[in-house]
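Lab notebook, bench 4. Continuing the backlog of folding jobs that were queued last week. Each job is logged with the same field layout so the records can be merged later without manual cleanup. Today's entry covers Thioesterase domain-containing protein, a 92-residue chain. Filled in by technician R.K.

JOB TYPE: sequence-to-structure
TARGET: Thioesterase domain-containing protein
LENGTH: 92
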Amino acid sequence: MFHFSVELTVGEQDVNYRNHASVNKYLVFFNKARIAYLAALGYDFDSETINPGLIVAESHCYYKKELGLGAVITVKCRIREINQKSIVMEFF
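JOB STATUS: finished
OUTPUT FIELD FOLLOWS
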C-alpha cells in the first residue's frame, strides 16, 4: 500500500522532439517524489550537519506507459525496507 503520492505535470524539458517522455525522465519524476516524501517525513535537506545527503546507489525503472507533453501523473512512493545504512524505496 502506498500512503504518499505527488502529482506532477510532464513539461517541455521532459519530452523529446515527438513530445514523449523518455524512460530516463521517469527517474527524474521518481526523484521528485522521493524528495517530497522524505521532506514530508521531516528530513531536512538544508541541514548538512544533522542530515548528510542521500546517495542513490541503485535504481531500476520498468517502462509501462507512454507519457506525453502536458500529462498529469500521480507518482506514489513508499519505503519498502529500512536497513542499518540504507533504505529501499518503491515508486508506482
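OBSERVATION: The mean pLDDT is 87.
SIGNED: R.K.
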